[in-house]
What we know:
By secondary structure, the chain is α+β, with helices and mostly antiparallel strands. It folds into two domains: 2-144, Gyrase A, domain 2, CATH 3.30.1360; 147-254. Helix content is 34%, strand content 27%. The chain is globular, with a radius of gyration of 21 Å. The N and C termini lie far apart (60 Å).
Amino acid sequence: MQLLWSQLMSHNKLFEGLQKGDLVNCVENIFTVDQFTSKMGNDRDVAVLRFRVKDKFPAIDMMEFIEKGYPFVLDADISSGEERDGRYSVFVEIERSKKLPGQIKNIIEGLTALTDINDWRFRFHKEIDGNDFSEESITENIPLTPDEYDTTLNEQRTTDVKEFFDQGTAEISVDENLNVTFRKPYGSPPLTAELKYLGSYSEIKNNLPGAIQVDEASASQTVFLSKFLGNYEIHKINGEFLVRNGDKAAVIKLHKG
């Protein structure tokens, strides 16, 4: 590790501002790829990495470390404010290409020296279960071309949504804009909603702003959804519906009409 740090120092003077181990106990060991939308281009062309950091100033240090230390990084930024659990996110944008696995490996090597984390894991898009990090694992699990991205996302979103909404009798279809249509048998009018998020219940609950709406109209909509979708715990929060299925949850926004 000392040799790695010396090599990093010799390649970029930015590293003089941070010392080995300066971000120990500041960064979570799980990062995501393609969970968030790119600011620099189309998501099919740009991969977005997201790291979670305990406090604002370590997040700023980490952002600058990545943005100025790796020429292939298109942009690095932090979340606009403190998140619900008090942490901050660092977002890193990289062009989607066959070079991506090696480029992510380079970043992780630098962060390992700063954080002393050796058991990195990552999650692709909205998947719940993570993968142990390696260059090979990135190659196997992350789409490296725009066409691969389109194909992978279409297949994954349909599978994930159908597996989540498995408590009812509705036939489910998902379009490229994450609009989910539920069609009940026996001629009931279909129900269409925008899928805002699908992931772990605890993570979504902790980050979803607003209180449960208990007014008469909201209660009526919640009862309707429970009957239409199946055996789920459903709450309306800030105009959207939090749907729970065990330790997983989805946030949907109903279309009007």
